[in-house]
């Protein structure tokens, strides 16, 4: 087990999460997702986690592996056009992972998602959580609009509310 990581995760638990993502910021995230989905045919979910639990840390679970778990848990793969996208933030590691279902991932590829992650992580390191998150959501929405433009009214297949784990 990486003891430095374990201490960081224990120190940056729930309190840090509530400070970085107060109710008003979570509401703003929901509004940004809703606004984006009005102009594209994709589905965006945002999930944030303050720290991993002891079991995940003992297993040395990476942010990417945890994002895969969350992708499945939130059923993001369950959209008609396979164009669901998860933006996952693990605060204790200052890590951002973007996972996309195969319909949109085939068009954007790893490099497109990685660039957005790097920009968001830089914003977190600079201490500007709001700009990092809203910028990331805007960037994901822009890619979805390019590859899955809105074509009339459609059902909202996944909830827009930000998920706090």
3D structure, described in words:
- This protein is of the alpha/beta class and 165 residues long.
- It has a single domain, classed as Diaminopimelate Epimerase, Chain A, domain 1 (Roll).
- 55% of the residues lie in helices and 13% in strands.
- It is built from seven helices and four strands, in the order αααβααββααβ.
- A four-stranded mixed beta sheet has the order 3-2-1-4, sandwiched between helices.
- The longest helix has 24 residues.
- The two termini are 22 Å apart.
- It comes from Fluviicoccus keumensis.
- This is TLP18.3/Psb32/MOLO-1 phosphatase superfamily protein.
Q: Give helix % range.
A: 40-55%
Named at the architecture level, the CATH assignment is Roll
Strand order of the main beta sheet, please?
Answer: 3-2-1-4
Oligomer: single chain
Task: Spell out the helices and strands N to C.
Answer: HHHEHHEEHHE
Number of helices: 7
For the residues shown, what is the average pLDDT? 92
The CATH topology is given as Diaminopimelate Epimerase, Chain A, domain 1
Query: What integer value in Å does the Rg equal?
Result: 15 Å
The major pleated sheet works out as:
4 strands, mixed
Number of domains: 1
Inertia-based shape: globular
First CA to last CA: what distance? 22 Å
Find the count of extended strands (DSSP E, 2+ residues): 4
Q: Any low-confidence stretches, pLDDT <50, length ≥5?
A: none
Return the structural class: alpha/beta
CATH structural class:
Alpha Beta
Give the gist of this structure:
The chain is α/β, with parallel strands linked by helices and 165 residues long. It has helices spanning 3-11, 14-20, 23-37, 54-58, 63-73, 102-125, 129-147, and strands at 43-49, 84-90, 95-100, 163-164. Strand 2 and strand 3 form a beta hairpin.
């Amino acid at each position: 087990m990486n003891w430095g990581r374990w201490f960081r995760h224990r120190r940056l638990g729930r309190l840090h999460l509530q400070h970085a993502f107060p109710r008003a910021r979570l509401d703003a995230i929901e509004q940004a997702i809703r606004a984006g989905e009005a102009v594209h045919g994709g589905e965006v979910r945002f999930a944030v986690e303050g720290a991993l639990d002891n079991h995940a840390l003992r297993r040395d679970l990476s942010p990417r592996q945890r994002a895969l778990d969350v992708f499945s848990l939130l059923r993001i793969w369950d959209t008609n056009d396979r164009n669901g996208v998860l933006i996952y933030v693990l605060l204790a590691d200052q890590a951002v992972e973007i996972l996309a279902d195969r319909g949109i991932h085939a068009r954007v590829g790893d490099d497109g998602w990685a660039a957005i992650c790097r920009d968001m992580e830089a914003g977190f390191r600079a201490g500007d959580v709001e700009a990092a998150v809203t910028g990331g959501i805007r960037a994901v929405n822009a890619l979805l609009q390019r590859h899955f433009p809105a074509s009339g009214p459609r059902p909202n297949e996944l909830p827009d509310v930000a998920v706090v784990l």
